[in-house]
């Protein structure tokens, strides 16, 4: 008798103390749950064993990456409905930790264990990063983490990012803009905030596939040094630079920002890179960039930020992101970022939130990935493709729901005279 789904629904609701907002389809073909809701497809019993051995987000994502779980229906709707049970549960929510003193929870766990079958921990999917000793953010560990994330294959990133090959929040100035338009407008916004002029030197930290370096050199006449830890990115960027005829003005290096010694520069752009630095290294990062700027030079720091926690001394990292996406990545509140930049000597002159813009960007990336899903799986592998689809869709919802944000912080190495060189009128970005 096919009854796994009703049993599973009842046990999960008993465990969570809340009704399941999605429908369940189990490995035996049975279904249960709200009619018309997105369907969580539990393809095998192994999915349950993953959840029991690693309750919460990591167990769910392991099952997703391995293909043990999938969604039939709109992914955003399903993730939005499940967010309250997984990512947005308050401290007073019922969890498996309470099983030792809650007989209902104990009974639910026993029932799930019986339904899951032989209770051995399944091995993690091969896409999962095996963690070493903490998050040291040495040059070697950072290079490994960057390689894990960015050396997936340039062809795969072309599917996701589109022709612009910009892997950071776009700037949607007008309704109906294309992703390419919005990324061009973001690069131009950064250049205007930096006040770039012909003949100046720009350092682009974490230059990616070279889009910012090319735009700044072509449109504003500056000389650019772009640094990345990804060999694949550097190879791709150098080819683009040569095709644009900008080899005399743009140099792409495979180099750690801590090893750049040929300052001073007139301006520095750091777009979507500082998330990799680590909380313990952030002041060092800020001081290094400060030391590479001329007096009066500007830094544009474009960085994802999280909401402040009650206990800011506690180490906090997203389990899924750390294991599958950005190993060692740490998000800080924007106030912490501003404080660290000021401690390094910078004068912070402007902070602009682009939170909604990143949600739109991520939805565009997911659309690109889904439009070429078969090719994406063949290029990166099914597991890695599933990682990216879940990561980007869940991140879009996180930005939309104000769980995380993204901010452009404009800071100046103000000279002793106090003349910042910035316009009196806010956000004209000229002069």
TrEMBL record:
Q: Which InterPro entries match?
A: CFA/CMAS, CMAS, MeTfrase_dom, SAM-dependent_MTases_sf
* EC number of this enzyme: 2.1.1.-
Which Pfam families does the record cross-reference, listed alphabetically? CMAS
- Polyketide synthase-like methyltransferase domain: from which residue to which, for each copy? 156-415
Span list, region Disordered: 120-140
Specify the signal sequence span.
none
Fetch the Gene3D superfamilies from UniProt: Vaccinia Virus protein VP39 (3.40.50.150)
| Listed CDD domains | AdoMet_MTases
| EC class | transferase
Q: Would you say which domain of life the source belongs to?
A: Bacteria
Gene Ontology terms describing biological process: methylation
One GO MF term: methyltransferase activity
PANTHER family on file: CYCLOPROPANE-FATTY-ACYL-PHOSPHOLIPID SYNTHASE (PTHR43667:SF1)
Protein's recorded name:
Class I SAM-dependent methyltransferase
